[in-house]
Amino acid sequence: VAKPIAYGSNMEWALRSVAQMDPEVFKEQLLGSIRASWEVYEEILAKGYTPPG
C-alpha cells in the first residue's frame, strides 16, 4: 500500500538512504551536484548575467 509522501517522511527516507550509502559514493554524488550547479552558474554568467552585489 503506497502512503502519500509527506515532507517529513520524505526527508526521513532521504536521510536513511544517505546513512546506508557508502561515504565515498555520497561524496562523489555531492561533488557531482555541486559541479553541475557550478556549470549552470557559469553558463548564466557567460550569457551576460551579472550577480547582484
Please supply descriptive tags for the structure shown above.
2 helices, 72% helix, single chain, 53 residues
How many strand segments?
A: 0
Task: Please state the oligomeric state of the protein chains shown.
Answer: single chain
Low-confidence stretches: none
Provide the structure class. Answer: mainly alpha
What is the helix content? over 70%
Rg from Cα? 17 Å
Q: Overall mean pLDDT score?
A: 78
**What order do the helices and strands follow?**
HH
Describe the sheet with the most strands. none
Overview of this protein structure:
The structure is a single chain. By secondary structure, this protein is an all-alpha fold. It has a domain at 22-53. 72% of the residues lie in helices and 0% in strands. The chain contains two helices and no strands. The longest helix has 24 residues, at 23-46. The protein is elongated and about 45 Å long. The model has no long low-confidence stretch (mean pLDDT 78).
